[in-house]
Design a protein that fits this description.
GMP Synthetase, Chain A, domain 3; elongated; disordered C terminus
Length: 410
């Protein structure tokens, strides 16, 4: 057991702030060194060192052994060193000698300076420790206590630190009062002037995934895998699950007996509706599943490169497939990564009829154009034939009889 009062104070402070005792010792050494420089106002090279034996911070002036002294404040000759340690002492150029200096003469101002330095260094070490700890825990769910409200943001007490739940990360279906307990996911850790700021979220899909991991043992042990999750916090969410074992139904495992598992998550999210769909490597099947609770009649890939699909549903299923303000199809598109165009069977039938009608009109116009072309070609051929007959010698002879015949007639 440690009997040294200073050592006990160091260990108690380190435990309270969650930092290593060595960090506190370094802060105290630097504080004594800063106060000593202000008090002695010397050009000497000072060094502070904690002594576990005496339990005190000791101060030294360090001088380097040289052959020729150029700066008496920081250097000492070999001859002087031998006079101090004896002629037989092994002293060489480059060795350093520490000369003790008093610390009990520093005074009240120096002690106050040392106190400020200690507090500053310990605070900096504590902030670095908090940042390193929580930066590695991004994505984890934490329990907290609502402490106060600041301009719409909620300050949450999480263990020995405070975190912030910004207004944009709050679900519109939720409201809290001071002292309420809440669960939120750590979205990030920011370094600020006042120390690290832990940012929480109640709208991030990571919260939904972590809640499923806590409620569904098959997800926790890896039998069922969550392949994607999207949310519009407070309204609706979709989760795609996949089973690594053929005998395990991924959707049934997440729903639980009589819906007990998913109902626990819905209560935590204040009534947010959750659609659990089965993931498939077949994009057509996955999109069809993602539109749940609506049932697709036909799913067709329109553009594979731009990832566009056309989905045809029954007329009475159209509004269910689109959802309130397009919410269902919007979440399905985010979950699958495909752009989804939804049409009812009636709309699709009209579209097909319009396409056939345009095709028939096009065929009729093509036929009429061909007939017109043939008529023009026929007329042109007749004109050319007539011109050839007119220009023929036989026709000219019949038209104009010889001159002898004309004279005989007279």
């Amino acid at each position: 057991m440690t009997t040294n009062p200073l050592q006990q104070t160091i260990e108690a402070l380190a435990k309270e702030k969650g930092i290593e005792p060595e960090t506190v010792i370094q802060a105290m050494e630097e504080a004594v060194l800063t106060a000593s420089r202000k008090f002695y106002k010397t050009a000497e090279e000072l060094k502070a060192k904690f002594s576990p034996e005496s339990g005190q911070i000791e101060l030294f002036a360090v001088k380097t052994i040289v052959e020729t002294v150029t700066n008496p404040d920081t250097e000492i000759s070999i001859e002087q060193a031998k006079e101090m340690y004896g002629a037989d002492a092994e002293v060489e150029a480059g060795y350093q000698i520490e000369f003790p200096k008093r610390t009990d003469v520093l005074g009240r101002i120096a002690a106050q300076t040392a106190k400020q330095v200690i507090f500053q260094k310990v605070r900096e070490a504590e902030r670095e420790n908090i940042f390193a700890e929580y930066n590695q825990r991004v994505g984890e769910v934490m329990n907290g206590l609502v402490k106060r409200f600041e301009q719409g943001d909620i300050i949450v007490e999480v263990g020995r630190v405070e975190a912030v739940l910004p207004r944009k990360e709050q679900s519109r279906a939720e409201s809290y009062t001071q002292g309420d307990r809440l669960r939120a996911v750590i979205k990030g850790v920011n370094k600020g002037v006042k120390g690290p700021q832990i940012v929480l979220s109640r709208t991030d899909p990571a919260l939904l995934i972590k809640l499923f991991e806590q409620e569904v043992p098959e997800i926790y042990d890896g039998t069922v895998v969550i392949r994607g999750a999207v949310r519009e916090a407070g309204d609706r969410a979709k989760v795609a699950v996949f089973s690594r074992e053929r005998d395990v139904d991924p959707v049934g495992a997440c729903v639980g007996m009589k819906g007990t598992r998913v109902q626990a998550i819905i209560r935590e999210l204040r009534g947010e509706k959750i659609d659990i769909v089965e993931f498939s490597e077949d994009s057509v099947l996955f999109v069809s599943n993602a539109l749940s609770p609506a049932k697709a009649q036909r799913v067709t890939i329109v553009d594979d490169r731009d990832k566009v699909m056309e989905v045809v549903v029954e007329d009475k299923q159209l509004s269910l497939a689109i959802g309130k303000k397009g919410q269902n199809v919007r979440l399905a598109a985010k979950l699958t990564g495909w752009r989804i165009d939804i049409k009812s069977e009636e709309d699709k039938r009209k579209e097909v009829e319009a396409q056939f009608g345009a095709l028939e009109v096009g065929d009729a116009e093509t036929t009429a154009a061909v007939d017109s072309t043939e008529s023009v070609e026929t007329a042109t051929e007749n004109v050319q034939r007539a011109e050839e007959i007119v220009e023929s010698p036989a026709v000219s002879a019949e038209a104009e009889p010889p001159a002898e015949e004309q004279a005989g007639e007279r």
